Amino acid sequence: MEKILVVDDEKSLREVMSIMLKRAGYEVTEASDGEQAIGQVNREIYDLVITDLRMPKADGMDVLKAVKSSSPETVVLVVTAFGTADSAVEAMKQGAYDYLTKPFQVDEVQLIIRNALEKRRLSTENMLLKREIASQSSFAQIVGQSEAMQKVFDVVRKVADSKSNVLICGESGTGKELVARAIHYNSARSAMPFVAVNCSAVPETLLESELFGHMKGSFTGAVANKAGLFEIANGGTIFLDEIGDTTPAIQVKLLRVIQEREFRRVGGTQDMKVDVRVVAATNRDLEKAVADGSFREDLYYRLDVIPIRLPPLRLRAGDIPLLVAHFLEKFAEESGRAAPTLTADAMHVLLGHEWRGNVRELENLIERVVAFSTGTTVTDTDIRGWLHHAVAPQQSQGIPADLPEDGLDLEGLINGIEKDLLMRALERSKWVKKKAARLLKLNTRSFRYRLEKYAIKGGRD
Question: Whole-structure pTM over 0.70, yes or no?
């Protein structure tokens, strides 16, 4: 239900407008003067504000400026008396969508309001599309017929329409964001925004502003007011990926917005209310993090209302042929090439691989298969060649507690640890090389040298 604020010092006109809008299905709030309206727009997020221009204490232009400062996406209609249209035109130059001249016709008002709210909806959709092109299909991108995945599907179907928070746990690359999207697009919120943020990918100093927005001048570089992701997701779902990597300070603010459904922008003085369902994900053991004090216990229990545990690929190897077929078709279509066929021996190699990077690792492998295969058939030899990040046994054992009696291959051990850390950084950064390099505090040239050293291919610049 879209929220509208009606501002007018004439009680009768304000009440008539409110009754008309409520009958049309809108949620309506009233303000009797500009000062009261400014206080409300600083606390609430409205889709539309209808304000008279001439009022005591603060006029319609003051209300307009307050709305555009607090929530630039909110649409403003100004109401003016007949014969003073010049001031309304000036208001439009300052950001008002349109104006109504008293006295007005009900049909005229309803048409302008519908058009104004449609503009607001299109603006919000455009903002979200610029952030990402989200697949709106519910389960189409989640492939699996194993018993473990069928249990996940059952949980998603049962809880999709619930308002309860969800915590998705699983190793990196198991498809946590796909499950979060499935929950959203199978819920009553599916027509509203789905906003995803990787908490570990945003620098700590910027994460608060990214989540909650900021006010102009609140810090160096804050040249304008900015809406945060919670505000953008209002009415929909926000997906907090890698929530286990957040700092205690951010955890306190997340707890407040989850409990109270309100937040405050960085540098702001007014609380803003929001209606957002929270779906969080982590590859960490949060119960252990709670025990060692690195994650707030109260936040954990607020998030873990509906737990979903995603199985690693190695525990659902029966899904590998399905996933391979899915990714072959996907990347062949993207590249405009015919999908190659895997021999039985090649599939046997895939079934026997440990898949530490889970589905993401398999997806990256099949992308390389489609990109580099020159024939119509892929053999087991080809697959072994492309499984460049398979870790040798001696590399995965870590540093021994003591030197073995028969000596130690120091260079092999160091190389194994280095290669393992390179792979972990790539997986954590979703194979974006610059981000992976930053995780290891390496410059780009040094990072690329190490990738070439261990013949690690793939990823994005």
Answer: no
